[in-house]
Amino acid sequence: MEIRYSEKAVKQLKNIVKGDKRSASSIMKTIEDYARSPKGKFDLKILKGKYGDLKRLRIGKYRIIFEDEEEKMVVYEIKHRQEAYRD
Asked: Tell me: the pLDDT tens digits for 5-49?
């Protein structure tokens, strides 16, 4: 599965790398693992409300908001859990 990142997600990931390289590495690895095998064991949830039918992938203190179609995964946001659902 191809992974695409929104500009916002890239910016958020760069900020995480500056402050917490271990978490950033874990986030990247988990996203790649999910893209390779979406049926694996992941803390995954389908969201409702303003996020429509997007999915949330939990990785430690961080939440990845994304959608996946047949051969494409689009990552929209990568946020700390306290900020993930605000806006």
From this structure: 999 999 999 999 998 899 999 999 999 999 998 888 899 999 887
- Which CATH number goes with the domain that contains 36? 3.30.2310.20
pTM higher than 0.90, yes or no? no
Residue range of the domain that includes 75? 2-80
- The count of domains in the chain is 1
What pLDDT digit, counting tens, does each position of 41-75 carry? 899 999 887 778 899 999 999 999 999 888 899 99
Q: How far is Cα of residue 42 from the mean position of the Cα atoms in its chain?
A: 12
CA 57 to centroid of chain Cα atoms: 6
* Token couple for 12: 């958020």
Q: How many Cα neighbours within 13 Å face the side chain of 46?
A: 3
CA distances from 43 to 7, 52, 64 (A): 24, 19, 11
Inside any domain, residue 87: no
